């Protein structure tokens, strides 16, 4: 028997699955079975495909990174953090800014039932970036 709490890992799996169902978003696992830590272990990054300079599609944009903690995951948004903050707040997720350069928004997913809301936030960030590209 182990003293590892799998709740954060289970939430990460549900959120990744919900994001993976969205068109145009890719979940890139960094650690498939992350060991949750208080500071968070990087589990996956979310990217949106974007045409590379030579048109090969290898210009993927990172949208967010997911860190697994014992009882939750933390999504860090570097892309359009203001949009991420607004949508995550509206979705009922706990949100706070991260004072780094460039600034980031942190959104906390504390229950697997919030996976769809987390995916909505990622999709809104992707849509905002797509609007900027036009």
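-> sequence recovered:
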């Amino acid at each position: 028997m182990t003293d590892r709490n799998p709740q954060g890992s289970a939430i990460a799996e549900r959120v990744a699955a919900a994001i993976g169902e969205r068109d145009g978003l890719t979940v890139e696992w960094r650690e498939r079975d992350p060991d949750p830590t208080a500071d968070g272990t990087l589990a996956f990054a979310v990217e949106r495909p974007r045409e590379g300079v030579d048109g090969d599609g290898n210009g993927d944009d990172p949208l967010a990174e997911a860190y697994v903690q014992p009882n939750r995951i933390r999504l860090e948004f570097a892309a359009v953090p203001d949009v991420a903050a607004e949508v995550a707040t509206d979705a009922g997720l706990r949100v706070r800014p991260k004072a780094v350069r460039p600034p980031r928004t942190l959104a906390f997913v504390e229950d697997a039932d919030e996976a769809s809301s987390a995916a909505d936030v990622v999709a809104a960030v992707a849509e905002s970036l797509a609007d900027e590209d036009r």
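The chain has a mean pLDDT of 88.
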